[in-house]
# Entry
Amino acid sequence: MKNSPVLIRQLFDSESSTYTYLVADTDAAAALLIDPVSEKLTSYIQLLSDLGLQLKYAVDTHCHADHITALGELRDTTGCETLAGEPSEMACVSRFFGDDDILQLGSIALRAIYTPGHTDDSYCLFLDGEQPLIFTGDTLLIRGTGRTDFQNGSSEALYDSLFTKLLKLPDQTTVFPGHDYKGWTQSTILEERQSNPRLQVKNWQELDTLLEQLKLMDPKLMDIAIPANKQCGKTSLSDAGLSFLTDKPA
Ligand code: FE
# Structure
């Protein structure tokens, strides 16, 4: 029996606790990167080379506030297309996708699901199949969710995205989050429905109250990261290799 050509690697940036995902169709030797971090550019290029993969797409699930994206540098280095979802202000990208659009990578079809709430340009990427899986960005984290207090965030929209979209996916769907601060790497829709404290609420107002009680600090250098990311991370600061430390900003 032929092995599945889908290869997934979860990569971690410890400065911002960001997960980046490499997804590849090994038969087609084609790859995409989800939420790449500028400071990890060299390691991505090395990994692609080691695995004999050509990078087709670099995708951001949303405009990040806590780290600088590697989208622009990856496009310069590999010639890949850069993608973000409407209505992102990342005017620098090669192409925007919308709700229900398919990102086709060889035989792999990733479906974009518009999940506003953490930001108004947040998307999840769903891969259907025998073992479905979803890259949830900062919309759904393991036992947590993204915050909703900047970048046109909305607790009402987040509640709707979580309850009417993500929790409708098959129970066994593997959840790959955009961040984790405790070392957890993956979960499932069923596990999060049962055990995620932010999914035990009855309405968006209860979710909003929970999020307000966290009293999160703004991500350090957020005022630099967001404008830089609107230019796909093309900034002299990222070139200088500055660190963008974070206080759990997801
Ligand atoms: Fe975020």
Remarks:
- The radius of gyration is 17 Å.
- The pocket of fe (iii) ion is lined by residues 62, 64-65, 118, 138, 146, 250 (CB under 6 Å).
- The helical segments are 41-51, 71-78, 155-164, 189-195, 204-214, 222-230, 236-239.
